[in-house]
Amino acid sequence: MALLQISEPGQAPDPHARRIAVGIDLGTTHSLVASVRNGVAECLPDAQGRVILPSVVRYLGAGKRMIGHDALAAQSQDPRNTIVSVKRFMGRSVSDIAHPENYPYTFVDQPGMLQLKTCEGDMSPVQVSAEILATLRQRAEDTFDDDIHGAVITVPAYFDDAQRQATKDAAQLAGLNVLRLINEPTAAAIAYGLDNASEGVFAVYDLGGGTFDISILRLSKGVFEVIATGGDSALGGDDYDRALAGMVLQATGRSWGTDEDKSRLLAQARACKQALSDEHSHLFEVMLSDGLLSRMVSRQEFEEAVSHLTKKTLQAVKKALRDAGLQPADIQGVVMVGGSTRMPHVQAAVGELLQCQPLNNLNPDEVVALGAAIQANQLSGNNPDGELLLLDVIPLSLGIETMGGLVERIVPRNQTIPTAMAQDFTTYQDGQTALALHVVQGERDLVTDCRSLARFELRGIPPMAAGAARIRVTFTVDADGLLSVDAIETHSGVQAHIDVKPSYGLSDDQIAAMLQDSFHTAEYDKNARALAEARLEADRMWLATQSALNADESLLTAEQAAEIRRLMAEVLTAKPLDTPSLIEAATQALAKGTEAFAAARMNDGIRKALSGKHIGAM
Amino acid sequence: MVSGGIGNGALSLSINDFALFGLPQQFDIDSAALDHTWKQLQKQVHPDQFSAQGAADKRLAMQWSVRVNEAYQRLKHPVKRAAYLCELHGVPVNAEHNTSMPSEFLIQQMQWREELEESMEARQIEQLQHQVRQEKNLLLQQCAQAIDQASNHSLASQKVRALMFIERFEHDLDNRLAHLDNIS
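ok -> structure tokens follow
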């Protein structure tokens, strides 16, 4: 692929002037990668000109694998080793899977997250997803003939903490620097809103292959404020396929048959469903191991067979409206996202409920990746004057277990992130020196009905009478929607902290080991990598400081500025050295030496916001 | 047009919510100005604006962004705002320790709960919701009057406790509606 001119004419081609950032839509049925080029977001095609990569990985044995179109084509021949819709298994255990018998896989129960038996051994959904992400990363690197600075990965808004963390791990495993996880409907709203210069309250109805999301957003001058979100992270086009195949089997008195039969039935159901979006009836015909199955299916029959699924999505829409405190009439438009929204009865039902014409002028398959690319471009610093600001929310309430297996909610759903919320607890026994904390996510009152995220203990509480200790538990949710928890006994100052990581047995070390195995086999050199990373970090810090000085040097005295310049010069001196630790030390010194400057800039920014000036306009 | 006490000194995360948003410290606030300032502040402090910056900037951005969201939630939500004003005036609401309520209020609460128990249709619940909302608006007006005109924060604090009961009941009404939706 041709090398692209990425600097403006007449400008020195500074390799740091522009960082290549991509947006990735890691979908249930297919995935895409997009990037902003020449100010326009576009999906990147593969060598054959196809932008869509089927999210399918086939393990062939002996370390070989097939990803995308070829793997999809082989699905029926080799269903057990061909993993489709892996997104449904992210952060899930076997007991979470509704009908394991409907899948041609052998699930292996593992603490935290299931694995899939393949000819290459047991695979975690994180590993399978990483194969897909690595393929897209490679595609982007080939397109630009350069390394990728970072990626924004999209997740369903209704993904819980475990599913988000699993997605982030998969990206890390694929060697991607994750700039941010953003919610799919929010990404779609960015692409849609910026294209149409829309203002007001909009709904995004996102029915994908395996997940359903509804988000209600307020758009104003580049600010995308999510008011409420809802959905079902296990409801999508796949379920429509299964319902259609089930209906045909029932009508013809046939059964699901072998794994190969299941795979063929589902593939035929998908084709038939798609055809019924344009035709009023379609022949469902598939060769099974016990003979040919052939039946004419009318659109009406299909719609009846799936009406319970569509109804479920409408219930989620109503709940989101209630959470937002809005009526259907308050919604100015509904953006339709995801291939499943091509079904005419879905469009009609959504339009009727929200009393507005569904907006579908952007390709529903591409719109999420495009929005992610726009956000990635902004986050990598390529668009310093950009007005884009995302104010997203947490989809599900977070809480901890209290006496009697009840949930005490600490962060309610639809809270704008980042957020930190605290609650005080106490001991219930005299002399109690430890407190077990069980972190859960969900809307139900009983712990057993919620998802368990983590357990940890606060130890070393000085012995006190029951009820005398005051334990403040703080939940902090970052802009990616990921949780960390702190507990402190306020009299003694005893502390405990946990980054909530689901316990599915992938430690940072294991991820590092896998990285080494799967993607950097040949010339992996630990020191070379550490050196490259140290230099990259030194560059980042130096550039960040330079841009801060350019913008706000006036906040510093001459001596302060001179000291910062001295530290910057030391970074430049250290950079060519061959010892990563020396480079890191210089970078650290610069980071430390600019803390006060960072605080002064933050204060200045807040004052400017209050005085009505806008810093970006300067 | 800087108001509410932001001078030239360093801003601290413990700054008063009203001062952080440049709003006068009173119950009656300009909610459009509040929303606008929230977005302006987040444009300055949101971690996304610092993703290409150093670690110190990122950490500070996270702290400030959390702080701005916290203050916004407290100011936007009328019951939380009233409770905050009571606390600022030395009369904390202390809902968990102070549960004594006038008996007529409690009787009304019980009547409403009975009505909810007996409601089998969404329409009945919506009617009840309407009634509850009217009562809530009345209490909010009394709260505003007690804080902004009479400066009677102990009266306001009593109204806030009543409002907290009502909000819990509203939550139950919402849940029942959602439940009816799911079984219909």
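Chain A touches chain B through 57 residues (CB under 8 Å).
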